[in-house]
């Protein structure tokens, strides 16, 4: 039997990040039996918590110690870490496993009564630890989902706008919360706490991060729908994630806390800071798309297209400022320009396109898609949309864009002209002064 005390004391429990390593430890437990497994790794029998998997119970701390040896060169010794809510239980639950208490595993007669929480009230970790019979630090290690099988309760934590460590991109859809499943790295799985939430097996308590070691109780929720989507993990790699639509319980006179102003904001793409347009910067020739030409020809065409786009944006920027528009800004790698028009201060988002090798149809399709995305992810619902071209578009194409709420401006090298009535209505002052 390898004890490895010195090695165990030098490693941390968080080094165990592999679900497959835990499954390997479970397989060995089953193969050699409980007594031999505990003797091999130097662990005593569990007294408080057991890993529940496929209808069987396993000594949770011993499984974690052995699993470390399947992921890393050596297992963890019994003396290298402590068991309990904030350590072994939190680690196994973070990997998608279910951990039960000795009372529950022994078939306790009924779950412990649920605490009565006040929607809108902010609770400290210490208070919640007392109410749900767990250590306060359990909330720092368990992530956004904490199960309390003794009470048949699932504690859910959301951070609208992103937590300090990771942004699950939860958001409000009316009065319902779109909530992302558990798991920060790799594809998420429909097991553990994710499965509990999808089936509404437990009572689901929803909290919102309020401040350090503080959580605001929003109410009791029920999952009405779940689906697979995609999103970045903590390493920025795209992966499969589970989205839940959560509805707050209004039965039996239950109340729900009104979401805070910050959490009510529509979801936004990663932050990009608007800035005044800089005519002195040199535009890059790196534009998307591959051309089936020689490298020299491709580079020359790209430089021409980028230079033309840059000069058109610069001309638009000067015209807007000259006409008295306010807050004229660009968002690098995103919005070409936006600004607030004189008079009513309504903001218009501009997308600039230059006709060249690509067709009018391709360019206007791209522009429509981009403008709608920019308004949704960067702007506000009442922002107006305008496409700016360096040459006229067909009447049919202008009518189509107008039907979608997009105005069209054309630039003839000296001034801007409105293509159709919507452009004249939307940016008339710009046309008049040119």
TrEMBL record:
Under the heading InterPro entries, the entry gives: ScoMcrA_N (IPR058807), SRA_ScoMcrA (IPR058712)
Domain named ScoMcrA-like N-terminal head is located at 18-100
Q: Where is this region: Disordered?
A: 253-296
> Which ranges are annotated Low complexity under compositional bias?
253-275
This protein's source sits in the domain of life called Bacteria
Q: Which residues form the ScoMcrA-like SRA domain?
A: 167-247
Name of protein: Restriction endonuclease
Q: What organism is listed for this UniProt entry?
A: Corallococcus carmarthensis
């Amino acid at each position: 039997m390898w004890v490895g005390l010195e090695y165990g004391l030098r490693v941390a429990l968080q080094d165990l990040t592999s679900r497959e390593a835990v499954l390997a430890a479970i397989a060995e437990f089953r193969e050699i039996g409980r007594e031999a497994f505990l003797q091999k790794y130097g662990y005593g029998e569990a007294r408080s918590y057991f890993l529940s998997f496929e209808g069987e119970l396993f000594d949770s701390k011993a499984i974690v110690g052995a699993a470390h040896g399947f992921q890393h060169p050596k297992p963890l010794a019994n003396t290298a870490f402590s068991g309990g809510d904030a350590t072994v239980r939190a680690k196994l639950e973070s990997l998608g496993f279910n951990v039960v208490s000795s009372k529950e595993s022994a078939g306790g007669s009924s779950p412990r009564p649920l605490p009565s929480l006040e929607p809108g009230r902010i609770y400290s970790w210490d208070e919640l630890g007392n109410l749900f019979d767990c250590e306060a630090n359990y909330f720092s290690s368990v992530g956004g989902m904490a199960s309390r099988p003794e009470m048949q309760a699932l504690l859910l934590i959301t951070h609208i706008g992103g937590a300090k460590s990771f942004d699950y991109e939860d958001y409000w859809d009316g009065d319902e919360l779109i909530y992302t499943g558990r798991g920060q790295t790799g594809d998420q799985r429909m097991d553990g706490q994710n499965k509990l939430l999808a089936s509404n097996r437990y009572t689901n308590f929803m909290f919102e991060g309020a401040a350090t070691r503080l959580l605001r109780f929003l109410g009791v929720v029920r999952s009405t729908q779940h689906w697979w989507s995609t999103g970045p993990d903590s390493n920025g790699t795209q992966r499969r994630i589970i989205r839940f639509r959560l509805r707050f319980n209004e039965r039996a006179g239950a109340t729900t806390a009104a979401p805070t102003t910050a959490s009510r904001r529509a979801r936004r793409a990663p932050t990009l800071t608007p800035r005044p347009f800089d005519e002195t910067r040199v535009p890059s020739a790196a534009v998307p798309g591959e051309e089936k030409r020689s490298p020299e020809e491709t580079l020359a065409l790209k430089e021409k297209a980028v230079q033309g786009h840059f000069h058109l944006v610069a001309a638009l920027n000067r015209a807007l400022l000259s006409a008295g528009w306010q807050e004229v800004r660009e968002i690098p790698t995103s919005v070409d320009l936006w600004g607030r028009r004189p008079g009513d201060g309504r903001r218009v988002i501009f997308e600039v396109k230059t006709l060249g090798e690509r067709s009018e149809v391709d360019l206007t399709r791209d522009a429509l898609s981009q403008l709608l995305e920019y308004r949704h992810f960067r702007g506000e619902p009442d922002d107006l949309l305008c496409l700016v071209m360096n040459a006229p578009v067909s009447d049919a194409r202008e009518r189509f864009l107008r039907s979608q709420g997009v105005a069209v401006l054309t630039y003839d090298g000296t001034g801007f002209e409105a293509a159709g009535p919507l452009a004249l209505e939307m940016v008339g002052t710009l046309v008049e002064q040119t």
